[in-house]
Specification:
CATH architecture of one domain: Distorted Sandwich
Oligomer: single chain
CATH class of one domain: Mainly Beta
CATH topology of one domain: Beta-galactosidase, Chain A, domain 5
Distance between the termini: 17 Å
Number of strands: 21
Length: 601
């Protein structure tokens, strides 16, 4: 994966004006938030009285691991790939090793692991940690007081209230009630002060939980239900995808909305109709992203998958329908035949306000045979917080790059002194520009599924349109592809193209003697070949960010060409049957070299 040269600066006056507009909008939003907060502090229209009691504890669908409770009791706090050893002190006194680590600590989602331990010791430890946090005053300032963190913590305290309150004394009960009331007030101010995008939706969900679970908050529940309905109608697209195009957001929303729907029912309160419609639309969309092994395709911010969480969410799919195959509003396509699955990104970048984690992966695809993933995108690193732009670049995806550039421009790209870098870090590195015209067509022909799509992300800079044609055979035994590069006033000297196919770390790749083909051995013993016509082929190192154990090195098949001379290249993945791994690797190797080994950590 090469550095994104063209993305290193904010290109063109249009992008510069767009960047300045986003920055000015953020300044206005923060000023409005401050002014509204100050006015509300004087008028005190939000409810500040602590709730008297909890009425109901919502269900938590997220994965639990009781062994984490032992680590926390021993003082080890492992979040977002970083570990802090508290050494007998409160973790809230420690210097956070990263923003992502601190976000997860302050969100308290880890309480579910202590509840899974189901012991008096875990309950006492949970109460002690919550008491430490409240006594520190972190919930009133800094990162822990940001709306998204407050919302996640409010939901965690409500869902894990049985853990916190069983065996608790009255003093702790009152402290927790006050903290819940304070969180409600903070989120009400955030909604009134201009919270937007995912932050606004998350705050509305948390307040809807509070309105249902806390005694005396019926008025809050009625008001926030309208806000929740408005945001779901705005952010969930007609085909069920989220406006950010990020599958992870879809998973997080379902993990919150499914228990919220149950909580409405348990309180005999009619849920907002957009909530029910959103869930019904999101379920088939989640199935579109799902590979045969239960993992989710790595597009636009998606990282590692918790397969048991996905399975749990799908249990709630009342329709039990097959996943959709054509999602024109979200910009994704699914091809499936004979146990082979292809999932392709056929959409442009999302709106700037929702593009902080979006990738430049237009026309990239992932390929799975049965339970084995073959071609992947690199995915997003573990944890939350700012994502390196290199991981969002086109080169991190299984598609074509022109002149080593991304098909999108990111705010925040460039050296540390550039205006784009400084403003981008402040406003969250959204996408400033990218493909605008992405025509898509698909059809069935003699049982084969044919997908054709193109994008204009390279037209303005290099005068090149990239078109990709995929044909999945009826039995799933072959995926044939053709990448075409249409020249429209091309930029001289900038027509070099690299086509990448990133391989899953479990795939072993060895070049065949012809030099124009690669043997791919899957972990289940099945063998596939990759072939390309008339272009140089190489196997190079790559990085896979979405492994359960963190980042791993892997390999990629790389095709290189000059679009001014070679306008199209054909390639194919072909199943050749099941082989003994040792014999297959020996037959695939050149006589004068050893097969390339699997490069693991």
């Amino acid at each position: 994966m090469h550095a994104d040269k063209a993305g290193a600066i904010v290109a063109g006056s249009a992008d510069r004006w767009r960047l300045m507009g986003l920055a000015l909008g953020e300044i206005a939003r923060r000023a409005r938030n401050l002014a509204t907060g100050s006015l509300r502090a004087l008028l005190q229209p939000v409810r500040r009285q602590a709730p008297s009691r909890l009425i109901i504890a919502p269900q938590d669908l997220r994965t639990t691991d009781p062994t984490v409770a032992g680590d926390i009791y021993a003082g080890y706090f492992a979040f977002a790939g970083r570990v802090v050893q508290a050494q007998g002190r409160s973790p809230f006194e420690a210097a956070p090793p990263s923003r992502a680590w601190a976000e997860q600590l302050y969100s308290f989602g880890w309480l579910r692991h202590l509840r899974a331990a189901d012991s008096a010791l875990a309950r006492a430890n949970a109460r002690a940690l919550v008491d430490d946090f409240l006594a520190s005053g972190h919930d009133r300032r800094g990162l822990a007081a940001e709306p998204t963190i407050v919302a996640r913590r409010l939901i965690a305290f409500l869902t894990q209230s049985p853990l916190l309150l069983e065996g608790a004394d009255h003093a702790f009960y009152r402290r927790l009630m006050k903290a819940l009331g304070r969180s409600v007030s903070q989120l009400q101010r955030a909604l009134a002060g201009g919270a937007r995008g995912e932050e606004r939706l998350t705050a509305a969900i948390a307040l809807a939980y509070a309105g249902l679970c806390l005694d005396g908050y019926a008025r809050l529940q009625r008001g926030v239900s309208r806000t929740l309905a408005d945001e779901l109608s705005r952010q969930i697209l007609p085909d069920g995808g989220h406006v950010s195009r990020n599958p992870r957001v879809l998973i997080d929303l379902l993990a919150d909305l499914l228990p919220l729907r149950q909580t409405y029912a348990a309180r005999s309160v009619e849920p907002p109709a957009p909530l029910l419609r959103a869930i019904d639309r999101m379920m088939p969309m989640l199935r579109l992203f799902r590979h045969g092994d239960g993992s989710i395709a790595l597009f636009n911010g998606m990282g590692g998958t918790a397969p048991d969480l996905i399975a749990t969410l799908l249990v709630y799919d009342d329709a039990r329908a097959q996943g959709m195959e054509h999602a024109p509003h979200s910009g994704y396509e699914r091809l499936q035949a004979g146990g082979t699955v292809v999932i392709a990104d056929t959409g442009g970048p999302p709106p700037a306000a929702f593009s902080g984690e979006a990738h430049a992966g237009c026309l990239s695809f992932e390929l799975t045979a049965g339970f084995c993933r073959i071609v992947v995108n690199c995915g997003a690193p573990r944890g939350t917080g700012p994502v390196p732009i290199a991981t969002r670049s086109t080169a991190a995806h299984s598609t074509a790059t022109v002149h080593d550039a991304s098909s999108c421009h990111f705010a925040g790209a460039g050296d540390d002194l550039s205006l784009g870098a400084r403003l981008g870090r402040w406003i969250g590195a959204p996408i400033l520009s990218g493909p605008q015209d992405v025509p898509v067509s698909r059809k069935d022909e003699d049982g084969d599924v044919i997908l054709v799509a193109a994008h204009d992300g390279y037209v303005q800079r290099f005068g090149i349109v990239h078109e990709r044609r995929l044909r999945l055979a009826a039995g799933g035994e072959q995926l044939a592809g053709e990448d075409t590069f249409i020249l429209i006033d091309p930029t001289p000297g900038m027509t070099d193209v690299t086509i990448r196919f990133h391989l899953h770390p479990s795939v072993r790749a060895s070049r065949l003697q012809s030099g124009q083909a690669v043997m791919l051995l899957l972990p289940d013993g099945e063998a596939w070949t990759f072939e390309a016509e008339h272009v140089p082929l190489a196997i190079e190192e790559s990085v896979f960010f979405a492994a359960p154990d963190g980042t791993r090195r892997t390999e990629q098949i790389v095709l290189s060409l000059d679009a001014a001379e070679t306008h199209a290249v054909r390639w194919s993945f072909q199943r050749i049957g099941r082989h003994n791994s040792t014999d297959a690797r020996r037959s695939a190797a050149r006589p004068d070299e050893e097969p390339l080994p699997l490069r693991g950590i």
